Structure prediction request, 183 residues.
Amino acid sequence: MNQSEFIFKITLIGDGAVGKTSIRQRYMGHGFKESHLMTLGADFSVIEKEFRKGESWLYQIWDIAGQKIFESIRARFYKGSMGALLVFDVTDKQTFRNCLSWVRELYRFSGSDAIPVVLLANKSDLRSRRSVDMKRADKFVRILNEGTASYGVTNYVLETSAKTGQNIESAFKLLGEAIRTRF
Ligand code: G3D
Ligand code: MG
Prediction:
């Protein structure tokens, strides 16, 4: 273990089949260390990254399963969460429309008024099937930022592809930076 270590508890949220598990697995593929265990309704992974020399960041990643599970169980996964990667599928409008309710659930269950969110417009490799414009995603984050600015929270948006690996590393790094700024 290095001296300066940060521990980030984060959750992956978004509708089923948007790519949450693929993103997590893609990210862990490049990690130095990982552990994984299946639990009821969620996967949990730990990964350590050294973004700067002598400074390691430990991510505890909760990947909430898509299937409907009891609220009380979901609530437990969110508790103490410091930030979230909110994923939607750029080829499926409905997954974008549901993003606001995911943010509400995150705030409600994490026990915090506002925590950093990085919105991921995933499956960006499927260009011809794209149905959600980045302008709409940008606008969503702009409005979110108006609500969270007073808490010192800034949210971001990135186009990602778990298939090509586009921005996967950046997504986790950006969220880590946002959490460090907030806490
Ligand atoms: P989830 O964890 O959010 O439920 P998964 O989503 O990670 O299980 O992904 C659902 C499906 O979408 C998977 O396909 C997966 O391969 C695919 N997928 C995830 N991310 C991307 C991406 O960036 N680009 C493309 N083209 N596909 C992606 P299957 O066929 O296994 O169901
Ligand atoms: Mg999954």
